[in-house]
Amino acid sequence: MIISNRRITGLTADVIAELVAEIGPLWHERHQARLASRQRKRAVGAGAKHQLVFVDRLLATLVHLRHAVTHDVPACWFGVDRSTITRAITEVRPLLAERGCTISPDVRLRTLAEVVDDLGVTGQTGIIDGTEIRVRRPAAGRKDRNKFISGKNKQNAVKSMVVTDGEGRMLWCTRPGPGVARTSPTPASWG
To answer: Residue 132 belongs to what H/E stretch?
Structure first.
């Protein structure tokens, strides 16, 4: 399913097959070198086996890089623990970078003003979306119990604002804040 749907990874099945053929042997070689470099307390071949084959490790990394999802999402898809996905991404991402598949590491947008400036320089269109996420009502007697009630939807919520580029890549996100408080800066403070 993941390989056949280009929207999930952003790559065709042919490109993914090329990556597997090119990067798979490198991953296996590095993995074996890592095992051989440490002093072994068990016989070669003993111990826990991989829960993810290389193709699944590559797909989990591609999904993570394309959609900026947390490691929990691919962990649910592949039926493994989050730490397994974290380890897989840590191993595969440098191999992709060596091949030339990287996300620009020099672009770190920390404020909305930086996002607006970057969009202006690159000539891209930005999409701004504010969202409310429903939360449980804080316990009775809690000091700030009414702080989480959204006036708009009459529910307990936290709010955040997300800015993406025209291709859907997330550029910036506010921290979630209480439902009634403004979590986004006013237009006058955008810089």
So the answer is: strand 126-134
Would you tell me the crossing angle of helices 13-37 and 82-99 to the nearest 10 degrees?
110
13, 3 Cβ separation under 8 angstroms: yes
Residues 6 or more apart whose Cβ sits within 8 Å of residue 47? none
Report whether 6 contacts 16 (CB < 8 A). Answer: no
Q: What percentage of the chain exceeds 70 in pLDDT?
A: 73
Q: Quick check: helix, strand or coil at residue 80? A: coil
pLDDT of res. 120: 83
pTM, two decimals, is: 0.53
Q: What is the DSSP letter of 41?
A: S
Which strand (E) or helix (H) includes residue 89?
helix 82-99
Beta bridge partners of 161: 130
Closest by Cα among 14, 34, 32, 24 to 61:
24
pLDDT tens, residue by residue, 90-119: 999 888 878 766 555 556 677 778 888 888
pLDDT at 184: 46
